[in-house]
């Protein structure tokens, strides 16, 4: 019987064997991710325009101050629902695991890229989990404080003193989300081979092996245990492959 | 050629019969919203003020009518809900509002009808201007007038949060903030505000701020003689003083006048939000960008080696060909421990 998923999400699988590629995000998740990313970029740019006068020129990107004022909260609502989609798909694998402690303690090795000193990880490392939960929390804060100061549709939802607090909280939370955004984008660029997970949906076997070995092993075991005819074909292919390399092929 | 209008000294003067050039120029601006470096004004206009002597008000609302007429606004006709306020609150089309309060004086046990003309106070330190994110949407002239420039306004409502007096209102269809301008367009041609001009009891007077303070002192003295021991001038220093001032018969209790703030000041939250925190936030964001860029340039990228790709394939093949019973779906099979030992 196929092993139950513990480290992987529905859709994650070994996609191909020669070359070895692992399927990490299905199309829906990728579309969901990029919608969220687009919203985030629009929100950060338009929000920055209101954050500091020296950045007010950014309103020009959206057709002027009035348009930006109109657009920002609408995109905020879109981001909230879009992120909720990601949240529902990803929260379970972002729950803390034992190995996250060791990983966090060895943050120096993480930053130096010495992954051989790090524990084997599931689909997400503690840093990714930090991005996930940090964004989840901040987006909640941002949507709640944002609605409170949404002049066009909720002018008198809360009292003026509460609105004053809400603008401060909104600005601070936005700043926090900017830091997480930078960390997230940077980590994806710095860790080579990551971006294809969100473009094509796949990563190389080596990438999965290096960064998320537990996840990779679970998918390999699931592949092995697949009862379908597909697995027979695949085994055949591997058999040929191995035979070509001079390995003895174990009959199954 | 037309000549420059004189500075306004009173609301009682007659309008000029000859066309006059505006005497309130762009160079007379001393503060501009969301603008750090305002060119220093070329001259200092006489500081003006409107003085509202609450003890003289008869609640006729001529000021409201004059305001509507001069500013060509069209306040909605509302329903009578049994109070004198009409409309019920300041609106984007009603820049000034008579607020009626019934107050039982505990010393005399008498009911006092306190009528206060509400509207923009034209603070010396305007909270609206401080909180505004749109460059040039709010300006303050050297005569003290705080004016909203609608062309630059984006309708975000930050001024509503910044104002200690709850004055600005966002227009529902024009999406710009509206409030009393102190009739800056009348002041520009030597005239006083429309409300002051219309007031039949001279409850509202207008002129240089110093003169208005002197007039207020006379009035306060008069009120004290008539038994109002706590009569006084409302020119709150928490916002640096205002260019609309009240003479109150109970200056020790401003809040009985329909919630006039006792000690108005720009909220510390607004100061925190608009103060150095903003610069710090901007610098922190810049540092994060720079830090990641530097790490990107100088730290070696986290790359998957050719060797790891091979190891991945070996591990994969080992797992695929190991008997399912042997590992039993356990997270740490023999291969895994082998990897760890490596």
What does this structure look like?
The complex is a heterodimer of chains A (252) and B (342). With 252 residues, chain A is mostly helical. Chain A has a domain at 25-90 and 125-192: Transmembrane di-heme cytochromes, Chain C (Fumarate Reductase Cytochrome B subunit, Up-down Bundle), CATH 1.20.950. Chain A has helices at 27-51, 65-90, 98-105, 107-112, 126-148, 160-190, 196-199, 205-211, 213-225, 229-245; strands spanning 13-17, 20-23, 202-204. In chain A, strands 1-2-3 form a 3-stranded antiparallel sheet. In chain A, a hairpin with a 2-residue loop joins strand 1 (13-17) and strand 2 (20-23). In chain A, helix 1 packs antiparallel against helix 2. The model of chain A is unreliable at 229-252 (pLDDT under 50). Chain B is of the alpha+beta class and 342 residues long. Chain B folds into 3 domains: 3-266, Alpha-Beta Plaits (2-Layer Sandwich); 273-302; 306-341, no CATH class. Chain B has helices at residues 62-71, 127-131, 158-162, 184-187, 194-198, 209-225, 268-274, 276-298, 306-321, 324-327, 334-341; strands spanning 3-4, 20-21, 29-32, 48-53, 96-105, 110-119, 138-141, 146-148, 169-170, 177-178, 204-208, 232-234, 244-248. In chain B, the strands form 5 sheets. In chain B, strands 11-4-13-12 form a 4-stranded mixed sheet. In chain B, strands 3-7-8 form a 3-stranded antiparallel sheet, with no helix packed on it. The relative contact order of chain B is 0.15. Mean pLDDT of chain B is 91; it is low at 326-342. Classes of the chains: A mainly alpha (252), B alpha+beta (342). The interface between A and B is large, with 73 and 63 residues.
């Amino acid at each position: 019987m196929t092993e139950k998923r513990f480290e992987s999400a529905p859709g994650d699988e070994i996609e191909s064997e020669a070359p070895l590629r692992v399927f990490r995000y299905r199309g829906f998740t990728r579309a969901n991710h990029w919608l969220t990313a687009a919203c985030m970029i629009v929100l950060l740019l338009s929000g920055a325009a209101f954050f500091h006068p020296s950045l007010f020129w950014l309103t020009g990107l959206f057709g002027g101050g009035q348009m930006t004022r109109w657009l920002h909260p609408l995109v905020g609502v879109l981001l909230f629902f879009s992120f909720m989609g990601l949240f529902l798909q990803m929260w379970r694998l972002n729950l803390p695991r034992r190995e996250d402690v060791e990983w966090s303690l060895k943050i120096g090795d993480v930053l130096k890229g010495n992954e051989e000193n790090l524990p084997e990880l599931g689909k997400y490392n503690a840093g990714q989990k930090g991005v996930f939960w940090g964004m989840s929390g901040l987006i909640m804060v941002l949507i709640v404080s944002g609605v409170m100061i949404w002049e066009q549709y909720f002018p008198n939802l809360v009292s003026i003193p509460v609105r004053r607090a809400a603008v401060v909280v909104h600005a601070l939370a936005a700043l926090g989300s900017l830091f997480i955004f930078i960390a997230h984008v940077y980590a994806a660029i710095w860790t080579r081979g990551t971006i294809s997970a969100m473009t094509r949906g796949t990563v190389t076997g080596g990438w999965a092996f290096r960064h998320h070995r537990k996840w990779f092993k679970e998918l390999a075991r699931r592949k092995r245990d697949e009862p379908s005819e597909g697995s027979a074909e695949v085994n055949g292919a591997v058999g040929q492959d191995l035979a070509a390399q001079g390995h003895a092929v174990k009959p199954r | 050629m037309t000549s420059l209008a004189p500075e306004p000294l009173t609301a009682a003067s007659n309008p000029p019969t000859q066309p006059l050039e505006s005497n309130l120029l762009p160079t007379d601006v001393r503060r501009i919203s969301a603008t750090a470096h305002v060119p220093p004004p070329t001259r200092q206009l006489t500081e003006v003020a409107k003085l509202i002597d609450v003890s003289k008000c008869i609640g006729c609302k001529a000021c409201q009518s004059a305001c509507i007429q001069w500013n060509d606004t069209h306040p909605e006709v509302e329903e009578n809900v049994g109070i004198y306020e009409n409309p019920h609150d300041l609106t984007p089309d009603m820049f000034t509002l008579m607020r009626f309060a019934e107050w039982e004086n505990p010393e005399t046990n008498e009911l006092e009808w306190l009528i206060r003309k509400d509207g923009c106070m034209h603070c010396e330190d305007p909270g609206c201007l401080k909180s505004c994110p749109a460059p040039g949407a709010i300006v303050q002239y050297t005569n003290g007038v705080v004016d909203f420039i609608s062309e630059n306004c984006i309708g975000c409502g930050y001024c509503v949060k910044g104002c200690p007096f709850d004055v600005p209102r966002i227009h529902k269809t024009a999406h710009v903030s509206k409030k009393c301008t102190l009739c800056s367009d009348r002041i520009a041609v030597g005239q006083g505000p429309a409300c002051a001009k219309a007031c039949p009891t001279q409850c509202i007077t207008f002129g240089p701020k110093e003169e208005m303070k002197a007039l207020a002192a006379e009035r306060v003295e008069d009120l004290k003689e008539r038994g109002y021991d706590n009569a006084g001038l409302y020119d709150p220093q928490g916002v640096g003083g205002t260019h609309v001032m009240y003479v109150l018969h109970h200056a020790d209790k401003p809040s009985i006048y329909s919630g006039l703030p006792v000690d108005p000041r720009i909220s510390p939250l607004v100061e925190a939000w608009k103060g150095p925190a903003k610069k710090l936030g901007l610098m922190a964001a810049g540092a994060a960008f720079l830090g990641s860029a530097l790490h990107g340039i100088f730290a070696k990228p986290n790359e998957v080696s050719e060797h790891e790709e091979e190891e991945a394939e070996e591990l994969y093949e080992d797992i695929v060909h190991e008997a399912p019973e042997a590992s039993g779906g356990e997270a740490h099979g023999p291969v895994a421990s082998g990897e760890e030992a490596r």
